[in-house]
């Protein structure tokens, strides 16, 4: 464990908590893409299957359970409790265009052709594009509530901090995983234009308005 | 390659 990875995990946890609080407090999931949340749930379920087979550390196991539980709770709030506030019209990204390529790529490029490893690889590829429906929704509505932009900033920062973690681990432990690094770079790049808008607008108290 | 026993990151 290093400071970058810890900061990344905490940023990830913060993002998930911000989202849950936003939906719970405002009793609305307006502006949130249910499709992205479905993809994140798939990411956690396919990646954290090793929860029952491999024990890494108490921290690792607890965080996996928290992420799976929080994503389940978010889906429940969005698709059951506050279903009426779900923005079906704007949340129209075709997630099969993300799922199918990730499955194919995981079958072609992986470390080991075993079920667990293919699922882990699929999960890594899927996570890198899972935010697209959310960014698509924000671009369609042209704006985002500031709480939603804080959520996106924390979520984007988590994988950016992981990039620093991978640099550190390569230098300190000569450990690297090209699949995770490649996907992490793609994932972080997808947030770049959002990061720009967040820093130039939201931090100045303005609403996140995408140029029409 | 970069084989290693298990994925220790979240």
Automatic annotation (TrEMBL), chain A:
This is ER lumen protein-retaining receptor. Pfam families: ER_lumen_recept. It comes from Hermetia illucens (Black soldier fly). GO terms for molecular function: ER retention sequence binding. Keywords: Endoplasmic reticulum, ER-Golgi transport, Membrane, Protein transport, Receptor, Transmembrane, Transmembrane helix, Transport. It is a multi-pass membrane protein. Its main location: endoplasmic reticulum. The keyword Oxidoreductase does not apply. It is found in: Endoplasmic reticulum membrane. InterPro entries: ER_ret_rcpt. GO terms for cellular component: endoplasmic reticulum membrane. The chain crosses the membrane at residues 62-80, 92-113, 119-139, 151-172, 178-199. Belongs to the ERD2 family.
